[in-house]
Design brief:
Elements (H helix, E strand, L loop, with lengths): L7 E5 L6 H6 L6 H35 L3 H20 L8 H11 L34 E4 L2 E4 L5 H8 L13 H9 L29 H24 L6 H8 L1 H31 L13 H17 L1 E3 L5 E3 L3 H6 L3 H26 L4 H4 L5 H28 L3 E4 L6
Antiparallel strand pairs: 1-6, 2-3, 4-5
């Protein structure tokens, strides 16, 4: 298996004994056994995320059938609950090309939400970078996309996936996935770094005279289609990990190379993605637009469960959505057979990062949302977030040493924000 490579800040090559000698050194823990645990956890976490997306679809169907404050709140709660499993799945990105191929449809951000629906006048209109930034498909049944006249009179999953997603090749034209649904449930968060999330009224889905902000029928059609598409895409992700799934088969075909893929995923999520693009950038700019779950103010949970996902892969243990525990031979155990101290160090580093993320989460659940914590002048909140960044950077450095100890080939994605 060829390890998936990207432009990087850290680049690591084989620096220690060959993997074959490591495998021969132990009958108890082998690369093949570790890879099987990894794939089994992948199947479980993506299956849980799929189930969460189906629960979300049920809640959205109930909202659209009977719009009310209660059904809107239930749909929002289902979205937040489903994110717990999905964010734990992100530890399987970066090292697995088949996962990365599907990820843009599912979790792309940030988005120019004006592509989808109405926005506040302060949002502005089309820009030189994106002429579709304020297209508002909900209110626009026909529009030109280059030389093509698009018939959007019926909003379908196919229209979203094939025409709107990354329209005109622009990455911020995010029309599908978790964040498109999030925007349709919460609306824009207009509070900046002050308290408060998006406040979309339930009447945006009411029909007839109770409809607010116009086009409630088309808005409902978009939400329904986007949720249906999300379930379909989550099914495709879960299928990657079945017995004959693309991701599992590729990993199990070459377990020694698969260890590099696993560590690429852990290191790249830790460093370039989470510490850099999702946390440090927003902290540097004090910009709530740079927080991941920006409409719902759920970012504290997103970051926390990303680190839980990293810990799951390292320890070879996953607590499923139903409370059952899946456990098997782990990377930590494999490393411990050659360097117990190093294995203990990374276990402690990840635990320390998780503690820092819990401090952010606890503050948010106590009333100080993540966007408030990164606000200019909030010294305590800024320090809390910086502690999370520092923990991620520290654990990445230890992951580098693990890669070297295993003699694995791995490339960890970087971030300009951390340089």
């Amino acid at each position: 298996m060829k390890v998936h490579m990207r432009p990087t800040y850290f680049a690591l090559a084989a620096l220690a004994a060959p993997m074959t000698s490591l495998a021969q050194a132990s009958d108890a823990v082998t690369p093949a056994a570790v890879v099987k645990t990894y794939a089994d956890i992948g199947e479980a976490v993506f299956t849980d995320a799929l189930a969460g997306s189906r629960d979300l679809q049920d809640a959205v169907d109930a909202l659209l059938a009977t719009p009310s404050p209660e059904t809107l709140e239930a749909a929002r709660a289902a979205w937040i609950k489903a994110r717990e499993s999905y964010m734990q799945s992100e530890a399987f990105r970066f090292g697995n090309p088949s996962v990365d191929d599907l990820e843009p449809m599912v979790n792309s951000w940030p988005l120019d939400e004006g592509l989808i629906d109405y926005v506040d006048p302060s949002y502005g209109g089309a820009t030189d970078e994106n002429e579709f930034a304020a297209l508002n498909v909900v209110a626009t049944p026909s529009f030109s996309l280059g030389p093509v006249q698009v018939d959007a009179s019926k909003i379908t999953p196919e229209l979203i996936a094939d025409t709107l997603q990354e329209a005109d090749g622009i990455e911020t034209n995010v029309a599908s996935g978790w964040h498109a649904v999030e925007f349709l449930l919460w609306g824009q968060d207009l509070h900046g770094t002050g308290p408060g999330a998006g406040e979309r009224p339930w009447t945006d889905y009411a029909q007839g005279a109770d409809c607010t902000n116009g086009n409630c029928d088309r808005r409902a059609a978009y939400l329904s289609a986007a949720t249906e598409l999300l379930v379909k895409d989550m099914q495709s992700m879960a299928d990657l990990w079945s017995d004959d799934g693309t991701a599992r088969v590729a990993l199990e075909a070459d377990p020694e190379a698969a260890l590099g893929a696993m560590l690429t995923g852990l290191g790249s999520l830790s460093f370039g993605e989470l510490a850099g693009e999702r946390m440090k950038l927003g902290l540097l700019l004090h910009d709530p637009e740079e927080e991941q779950d920006c409409f719902s103010d759920n970012t504290h949970n997103a970051h926390y469960y990303d680190v839980v996902g990293i810990q799951n892969v390292w320890l070879g243990r996953y607590t499923r959505a139903d409370g059952s525990v899946l456990e098997g031979p782990s990377l930590a155990a494999l490393v411990a057979e050659t360097d117990a101290g190093l294995a203990e160090e990374l276990t402690a580093d990840i635990a320390a990062t998780l503690k820092a993320m819990m401090a952010i989460k606890t503050a948010a659940e106590g009333g100080e949302a993540y966007d408030q914590q990164i606000g200019a002048g909030n010294e305590a909140g800024n320090a809390r977030v910086q502690a999370g960044v520092d923990g991620l950077v520290t654990q990445t450095k230890t992951i580098e040493r693990v890669i070297a100890a295993l003699g694995a080939e791995s490339t960890i994605e970087g971030s300009d924000s951390l340089q």
